[in-house]
Write a structure and sequence with these properties.
By secondary structure, the chain is mainly α. It contains three helices and no strands.
Length: 137
């Protein structure tokens, strides 16, 4: 399932470009590339975390709206049994239930992206440490 995130059109850094370790000697350009990758990854992580907070807030509001409407629908339903009133409330609240599911999926997906970015950031830090050791900085 492809999740479309409204208003989230920011691009992430291009991870396909990697540092070249074919030579044993590393130069200042490699450090510059690494620093740029660290900064871009950190900024991307910050943006994703801001989006997580934003969509989590929306999700919580939708959950509250759903619960309130569901309770009102159960009370207002004209049916003979409790199970029939619940079924009517379920049907009348389907749209809000779908919105809650959507925002839950968005938050889950952004959380996975955030986790990947944290892992990438840790990897870049390790590479930076190794580069500094090789360059004796």
């Amino acid at each position: 399932m492809d999740i479309k995130i409204p208003g989230f059109d920011k691009e992430f850094p291009n991870w396909s470009k990697t540092l070249n370790y074919s030579d044993t000697f590393l130069d200042q350009e490699d450090m510059s590339n690494l620093n740029s990758a660290l900064i871009n990854t950190g900024l991307s992580l910050k943006r994703v975390n801001a989006e997580i907070e934003k969509y989590d807030r929306i999700k919580r509001i939708k959950e509250l709206e759903y619960k309130r409407k569901f309770r009102r629908e159960i009370v207002d339903a004209q049916a003979a049994t409790a199970s029939q009133r619940k079924a009517i409330a379920d049907i009348n609240c389907e749209e809000l239930e779908s919105e809650v599911a959507y925002y839950t999926s968005v938050v889950d997906e952004l959380t996975r992206i955030s986790s990947v970015l944290r892992t990438d950031l840790d990897i870049l830090k390790t590479i930076g440490f190794n580069l500094r050791q090789e360059l004796k900085i």
